[in-house]
Amino acid sequence: RQLLLDQLPDAQVMIVSNREPYIHNRENGEIKLQIPASGLVSALEPVMRACRGVWIAHGGGSADRETVDKNSRLMVPPADPTYALRRVWLSEEEQDGYYYGLANEGLWPLCHIAFIRPTFREQDWAMYRAVNQRFADVVVEEATCENPIVLVQDYHFALLPRMIRKALPKATVVTFWHIPWPNAETFSICPWREEILDGLLGSSILGFHTQFHCNNFFDSVDRFIESRIDHENSLVSFGGRETLVRPYPISIEWPPRGLLNQPSVEQCRINVRERFGLAPDTRIAVGVERFDYTKGILDRMRAVDDLLTMAPQWRGKFVLIQVAAPTRSKLDAYAALEAEARNLADEINAKYARDNWSPILLVVRHHEPTEVFELFRAADACVVSSLHDGMNLVAKEFIAARDDERGVLILSSFAGAAYELPEALIVNPYDTHQMAKAYDRALTMSEEEQAGRMQIMVAQISERNVYRWAAQMLFDASWLRRREKIVPSD
Ligand code: G6P
């Protein structure tokens, strides 16, 4: 954290993201606070607490309007107010076009290779442009100087960097793309590929999780717009300006706040086994994510089926607890996935159920971080079987939760995290039998081996934590600002 604080500039820091870090909902007449299930939010929240700036986001909660002042602002975190959350109100029409349509039916499947066809509609694109402009206007409204540092987040805002650059030419715009960047051939599907590249190249810095995604971006730029790429220095020159394009692998905070006030691992095991009505010696694998088709939830269930056929000794002795938070449920692909997952769980359970035992426990609801940590601490293994994922912070959180150095991480080779955590059991989620064998291997791994792998992964994550992620971007930003004073761009 000190690392980050050392990098903090005198300038004002703003974050723009679609999803807000705190959502107020009205439930049964009462206002309830929810922290959303989003890797982006869990990574940026600690950064903002350190920066004390302004976070601009869509106010999507049913009681959000009741909790802000007349400028649509409130100080958060509610328990210890340190920074301002500025909510932007979007109409249903705006959300349909910009968020559900272009962002989540177009760009999301375009960037994740999960074999869901991207859908691009002209009216969604118009709405996406309009909403990006609305956020640009709010950035200008909130700016207290001519050169703020604006941290733009994710695929909801590909056009925003250029819009901010036009309104505040001296701003330092640091954009982070939290999802993969596809190869140029795939990217070419997008009817507005040139506009998207132009929008992003309004950034001073553009970050991806891995070098691989940066290279895909360079290839797309090379193919679709007139620009100069300096591979040696990771710079793209376009329209008289340069953008630094670099990998910044995102991470989690360290020490992890989720560990605070957690009961002992032993107690967590008792609590979770009681809650799910499991016998004390039941072995547990957990999966925790948003109910998203990129996460490979069906694949890990099929692997349980395979495991119980291949190694029948686990019947009655092993369960997969799958926590899935409802997400984007308005979209057909998400509704279809949920129905299919429920059917598959029922089918597998019917095939093997005995006495009071079923192998798959599917819990579809939002879980608060403390609940998730309790589950992690109670588990023998955590399974992250993404078909494609920018980074995946669940993998890192599981490791953070295990201060007892026990538990095995089963990790998809298609998650960015696999580059940093090769000590996990790395699997191809499309290979059901390989995953089944990984479950078996996890359940039979010696305690020494578990501890050995965990120690290496803990060293990696504690060192490369989210403060370092943010500090590295701010460090690069301040280098650019210093350089700009001496060598101004046209
Ligand atoms: C991914 C995206 C984030 C998004 C999160 C949750 O991590 O990269 O931008 O916030 O999923 O999705 P949601 O649509 O619920 O915000």
TrEMBL record:
Keywords: Membrane, Transmembrane, Transmembrane helix. It comes from the Bacteria. GO terms for molecular function: alpha,alpha-trehalose-phosphate synthase (UDP-forming) activity. GO terms for biological process: trehalose biosynthetic process. Belongs to the glycosyltransferase 20 family. This is Trehalose 6-phosphate synthase. The chain holds residues 258 to 747 of 749 of the full protein.
